[in-house]
Amino acid sequence: MFKKRRFITVKKEIARITGKDNVRCDAVELMAYSYDAGLSKAAPEAVINFDNINQIAPVVKILYQARIPFLPRLAGTNLSGGTIPLKSGVILNLSQLNKIYQIDTTNNIAVVEPGVVNINLQKELDKFGYFYAPDPASQKVCTIGGNIGENAGGPQCLKYGVTSNNISKLLIITPEGDEITLSEKDAGPGLMSLFIGSEGTLGIAIKAWLKIIPKPKIIKTCTAAFLTIEDSIKAATKIIEAGVLPRALEAMDKTCVDASENIIKNPYPGESEAMLIIELDCDDENEINKNIKEIKNICDNCFSNFFRVADTKTESEALWAIRKGAYPAMARLAPNVLVEDGVVPRPKLPEALKKIKAIIKNYDLKASILFHAGDGNIHPNIIFDERDIEEVKIVKKAGYEILKTCIDLGGSISGEHGIGIEKRVAMNWLYPTATLELFKNIKTSFDPENLSNPDKIVPVSLDSRNEIFSKTHSSDNKILNNILNEVKSRYRADAQSVIVGSDSNSNKNLENENNILSLSALTEIIDLDRENFTVKVEAGIKISRLKELLKTSSLYPALPDYEGTLGGLIAGNCAKNIKNILIGLDIMTSNGEIHSFGGKTLKNVAGYDVAKLFIGSMGAYGIILNATIKLDSKNQDFFEAMPGAVSRTMSTKTAEAMPGAATKDHAHPATTTSAGRQTARFTPGKYSRRLKKVFDPKNLFNSRLYNIKKDSPALSGKDVSSLKDYSMKKLHKQNDLFKLSEQDK
Ligand SMILES: Cc1cc2nc3c(=O)[nH]c(=O)nc-3n(C[C@H](O)[C@H](O)[C@H](O)COP(=O)(O)OP(=O)(O)OC[C@H]3O[C@@H](n4cnc5c(N)ncnc54)[C@H](O)[C@@H]3O)c2cc1C
Fold first, then answer.
1. Which residue's alpha carbon is at the smallest distance from atom 23 of ligand 1?
2. Is the pLDDT reported for residue 498 higher than 90?
3. Where would you tag: which of 315, 339, 581, 655 has the fewest CB atoms within 10 A of its CB?
């Protein structure tokens, strides 16, 4: 489909935009861009360097019209082959776009270009007493654009969230060359969240508004050593259970520390097998000292043989140099390093570790193991020599077994490095075919010709085994099955539904609505995991009831006092911090397919972030069946510390039920916060319309949001049970109602 050597046909036209010297087709340049930090290789046809962000849209338009594949590239440190031009085509090198436009300490925002290196931004912010939370271990070279592309995390994301929690707004060039702005303040579905972590497949971020945070007054770095790695993980888990939320909680094994010997002398007792770095920040000296005391006690109880609080900034930096230098240290031991990036629910770490160690031993490999212990993200660093084909095969096999182990333990195949090329096959083990098809269609809705970083994330050939799907969704939940059957029969009859969270909600506008499909019977807690601090709960539960139930277990969701249901809160984007605590979502599309996104892991970048896309989707993309959210052990707003979070006490005067369905004009209901924030009304744009077609091609759910002119006939009641009495024969066919305008197609 993609013909090679087509670039020559557009070379002159592009050179007129970028300047001749910025268009490179010479062999050396092409070779330099034929590899990245992963294992895959493929040469591009050309490399285009940009020195002005305004050059990108016209160049993308030309490439798109000529059907030439392209991909944005920055430092190339993604570890999944994400910047390999598999279909040849053009590398768009954005690394010269490294302006910091503004550091705004009034609004706590920094405005930057994509090529800004993470550490350079941190250094600039430091001058103003600020920091930007995502701090990947690769921060000395990786860039903000790459961080957005991968939804990067880092040690500090345990407390402050990953990239998607720390971006306020993005300026984007879509694959077709449109310039659009996506903001967390946009009404409607979470397009910005969908874009973050999309690995350059949905377009290119050319400018970012980042949330910056005032530096805490006190930062203390502690380190502890243990005789076994299991004990170190136990200690990490107990620290979180105790309700202490460190700024960072990292673990590494002896191999890793020993590998760093030539940078820094191993500061731990010789017999130590594992080390933790625990960093705390706070404005209150007494509180931080109290927490350190508690952490020391926990470490002692887990048989630590060494504990120390760094005396000086230099000592603290030395500890971090060991942790952040682990990869280069391992890379010095052999020509290649495979860094795996599995993630499991935190309490499963000891089991995951045992199994991973067994895999490494079984294949007789040398590896160090690093963890973002606080959020269950495991990085075995396996060293090998790529010139030995047999060894490469074994290493890859071991890597896949590690990923399968993480999936078996309820985890995911990537916490932060992305899927790229190298983990595409593993997507088949994590998702059923129907969900992978959905991902494909999401890609197509942004990139109909499949030109922007093609063949990444979604496997090229889908594996039709559906075991995971049937395991998850063979439900004996009668209410769910009723909804499923109802939705399927309505789909067959082209009958529309108005989705509502509860029938007893205060918004009386609903009384005149037809075809109401209420989720009020879905109120069960499906899985309360006290050790993991998560709850999976059905969407029809009232927030007040959820809080009441959790309180009996001394667990607290950082949610505002809100009168409606959890599903309504998510679909209506009625609490700004919901995106910081939502980690999993099961949804039903209008044809009755059930899909699961995310789960109990705190980090997950495998596939597009559909869970967060559904925040603000207003019931028009699908029914939210249940959600998994993070909990706190204290009834306090530690999520306030996260950028963008709102106070628990905010007054949320938001219409309940599925917003849009509930209001006369079917727009996003205005949400008023104590800060006086008023979200805009929702007018579907080109991309939210195209996505609507992906999830609900017949426009059956909350259809008026997407310009539907008439309603389906009335139902006799609002509850799902009453829907049973309704004769489907009475429903009109309405397939003429969902038409996209020419420009939306
Ligand atoms: C030693 C080491 C340690 C690491 N530690 C961490 C860690 O702690 N946490 C972590 O999250 N990751 C880590 N990584 C992985 C990697 O550094 C991150 O994924 C980083 O965000 C990639 O940034 P980059 O500038 O290298 O981007 P690249 O690798 O060049 O690009 C990454 C992806 O983003 C896309 N992309 C690039 N620019 C844009 C843009 N402007 N708009 C949209 N998409 C774009 C690319 O096409 C590609 O798919 C580590 C890697 C290494 C080698």
1. 146
2. yes
3. 315
